[in-house]
Amino acid sequence: MSELASFEAILRYSFQRKELLSLALTHRSSHLRPGEDHNEKLEFLGDSVLGLAMSDLLMRRFPQASEGDLSKMRASLVNAGVLATKAAALSLGQWLRLGGGEERSGGRKKPSILASAYEAVLGAVYLDGGFTPAYELVSRHFADELEEKSRAVLFDGKTRLQEISQKIFREIPVYTVVEAKGPDHQRLFISQVSIAGKLYGRGEGSSKKSADQAAAFQTLATLQLESEEQDKTEP
Fold first, then answer.
1. Contact 62, 73 (CB under 8 A)
2. 163-195 b/e with 16+ CB inside 10 Å = b?
3. Which of the following is catalytic: 43, 119, 128, 212?
4. What's the CA gap between 201 and 218, in Å, rounded?
5. What is the tens place of the pLDDT at every residue in 117-160?
6. Per DSSP, what are the bridge partners of residue 101?
7. Domain covering 156-233 assigned CATH 3.30.200.20 in the classification
């Protein structure tokens, strides 16, 4: 168990049930003894734990974001490529139990295996200590990504959007209030923003200013996701 203790130090979590960590690091290709299991069920559990933790972190960080925007941001943070990077940062590959075939084919560095193992470890932490330590682990591992998204969209949506719009499109955003409803003491404004004649986002608020900010926020999230998708397709 001394080797597992070294990994626990890197992970910054000490397991009460060491067998859970051992199981999380056991790939299905490993030569298993009769009755011995592998990490796929822990991976299944860890995927749900990660989704819940990230959903909560995003909702706290971006309280004005719509459900659709939150879903897109979560997807951009918890995809296999990002998880493999997190696993590599923990040197997780060196601790895996692999079969001979996977060992020879470079399985310790395969993104799919690393991403799955990361989720399995997260599932193991949840079973061992509950949701709080698992949540803290996700919060710690994704702190930089969450801060980057915050800097990009939160400090002043309209100012940030104008800077980006002028840089990318060489035009400024145009805000239009498309609807105002409700009694005078409880008005709801719906604003939309267009850039170069194309509609990018809508937002609502109790004032025109807050509706414009919400629309700017949605547009920033859309532009960021478009940029990320473009980066993925470029060679």
1. yes
2. ebbeeeeeeebebeeeeeeeeeeeeebbbbbbb
3. 119
4. 5
5. 999 999 999 999 999 999 999 999 999 888 776 655 545 678 88
6. none
7. no
Q: Is 119 a catalytic residue?
A: yes
| CB-based contact 77:46 (threshold 8 Å) | no
Q: Which helix (H) or strand (E) holds 177?
A: strand 174-181
- Contacts for 228-235: CB closer than 8 Å, 24+ residues apart: 228/76
* Banded model confidence at residue 235, pLDDT cuts 50, 70, 90: low
Decide if 128 is catalytic. no
pLDDT digits (tens, 9 = 90+) for 200-232: 988 888 888 878 888 888 888 888 877 777 766
pTM beyond cutoff 0.85: no
Which residues of the chain are in CATH 3.30.160.20 domains? 156-233
Query: Where are the domain boundaries for CATH 1.10.1520.10 in the chain?
Result: 2-150
Check 47, 69, 102, 128 and give the catalytic one. 47
Q: Which CATH architecture has domain 2-150?
A: Orthogonal Bundle (1.10)
> Of 113, 122, 111, which is closest to residue 85 (Cα–Cα)?
111
Q: Are 77 and 229 in contact (CB under 8 A)?
A: no
